[in-house]
Structure formats: structure tokens, C-alpha cells
UniProtKB/TrEMBL annotation:
The keyword Cytoplasm belongs to this UniProt entry's keyword annotation: yes
Keywords: Cell shape, Cell wall biogenesis/degradation, Chaperone, Cytoplasm, RNA-binding
GO cellular component, one term: cytoplasm
The keyword Chaperone is annotated on this UniProt entry: yes
Protein name from the UniProt record: RNA-binding protein KhpA
HAMAP family named among the record's database cross-references: KhpA (MF_00088)
One matching Pfam family: KH_KhpA-B
Name of the gene this protein is made from: khpA
Species the sequence originates in: Lysinibacillus alkalisoli
């Protein structure tokens, strides 16, 4: 899943070396924390959060076969 998120995010940003994804996993959920350069945060979130919503939709549908709830957080 991390690779899917990177595949989506890397073409959007100006500082691809600063993209980092951390995973927190518990019994019933998985949280992917996406870290980007501060100047790229707006590009990843998009106007009115449309890009972030699209990223989350793709990741959620890809993780649909898992039995754990999946979350994607864009971290400051």
C-alpha cells in the first residue's frame, strides 16, 4: 500500500525526496501517515481537499479486501 501511495504522490510534488510514509497498525485498523515538504502540502491536499480525497478513495478501494479499516493522514 505504501508503494501505491508513493506512486500517486511522487508525480505531484516538487520535492520527491522529502516524501515519507509511516505505518501504524493495530488490531482493527491501519493508518498511513504521509509526510511531504511544507511547500508541497497544498499540492497533495488540493483545492478544497479534492486531491487528498481522491488519494484516500483509491487507497480505501485497494485495501477493501483487507479486514482492517484503512486511513491516510497527511501530517504537518
Amino acid at each position: 500500500m505504501k508503494q501505491l501511495i508513493e506512486t500517486i504522490v511522487l508525480p505531484l510534488v516538487d520535492y520527491p525526496n522529502d516524501v515519507r510514509i509511516e505505518t501504524e497498525e493495530s488490531d482493527n485498523r491501519v493508518v498511513y501517515k504521509l509526510f511531504v515538504h511544507p511547500k508541497d502540502r497544498g499540492k497533495v491536499i488540493g483545492k478544497q481537499g479534492r486531491v487528498a480525497k481522491a488519494i484516500r478513495t483509491i487507497v480505501y478501494s485497494a485495501a477493501g479486501s483487507h479486514h482492517k479499516k484503512t486511513y491516510v493522514d497527511i501530517v504537518d
